[in-house]
Amino acid sequence: MTLTERNAIAAPAEGLFIYNLDSKCFQYYKGTAWSGCLGESPTNALECSSPASNGGYAIGTPPLTSANTITVDVLVNSIEAYNISTNTVNGYSFSASGVFSAIGLNTITLSGSGTPIAEQTDSFTITYTEKGDTCNINIGVTSVLSSCLAYLNAGSTTDGIYSVDPDGSGPNPAYDCYCDMTNDGGGWTLVFNHNTAGGYWTNDAEASEFNVASPGLTTNKYSILSKLDEIKSAAAYEFRIYYPTLGLRNHWSQTFDPRTSASTIRPVTGYNAINIDMTNNSWGRFRVIRR
């Protein structure tokens, strides 16, 4: 009924329920006056500012793994089952189902499946099936990933030479490096290898970058220490140094840049021991590998 018709009701009964055509809402009589408009119960809804992709996406890699996900926030007002998924684009897709865990903001992880086919930017539509909500997210697929760790996260588990491009579409070209995918969790980049059978380093410049085109454990003098800042995935440098003759290794992190100069502090600034086999200075032949 209209507002005029409502007001014309003589002595309305307490609890009388009407639909107000003028206000487009329900109201009831409280005994002394009409209530305000009754709001709809809030529903669950996607938060479209929240979607984020995780993991590396490259053609020629194994099928997507547990590291390849999309996360999206849902504002939950009612605990109920959900099905959230994407369309299939370029050979892969994402999905999740379950029951919301709590009232409020819930972060839902959609697991990836399939294998990227072409190098391109893929536009996905995230659909909340029960409510019809949709959000969008773009994921870039490359032919070269940024690091050994990115290849590991994309499903590669074999030691060997990989092409990496740390700055992606930036000005620096991709280059080959040796990736250790099996020791201490894998995802390590060989940045330095020295076998004294190949001679000694003549100066700091040579030790910083040498035989860049020949990465591998059989290259007696190899260094890409000049690329440390491109390769590292955190604020600190994380190193793993290996002494193959004895099968011993040290694994640690530090904030001190080893290329600047000899440190006057022992241990160096920001040193954090992770797994230490050797405590003396007689390293001999060694390989330095870092994530």
Overall radius of gyration:
30 Å
> What percent of the residues sit in helical stretches (DSSP H or I)?
under 10%
Average the pLDDT over all residues and give the rounded result: 89
Report how far apart the termini are.
71 Å
Classified by CATH, the class of the largest domain is: Alpha Beta
Any idea of the CATH topology of the largest domain? Gamma Fibrinogen, Chain A, domain 1
How many β strands by DSSP? 17
Number of DSSP helices? 4
Low-confidence stretches: none
- The CATH superfamily label of the largest domain reads Gamma Fibrinogen, chain A, domain 1
**Biggest sheet descriptor:** 8 strands, antiparallel
Q: Which assembly state applies to the chains in this document?
A: single chain
CATH architecture of the largest domain: Alpha-Beta Complex
Topology pattern, helix = H, strand = E: HEEEEEEEEEHEEEHEHEEEE
Protein name: Fibrinogen C-terminal domain-containing protein
Organism: Algibacter lectus
Keywords: Calcium, Disulfide bond, Lectin, Metal-binding
GO molecular function: metal ion binding; oligosaccharide binding
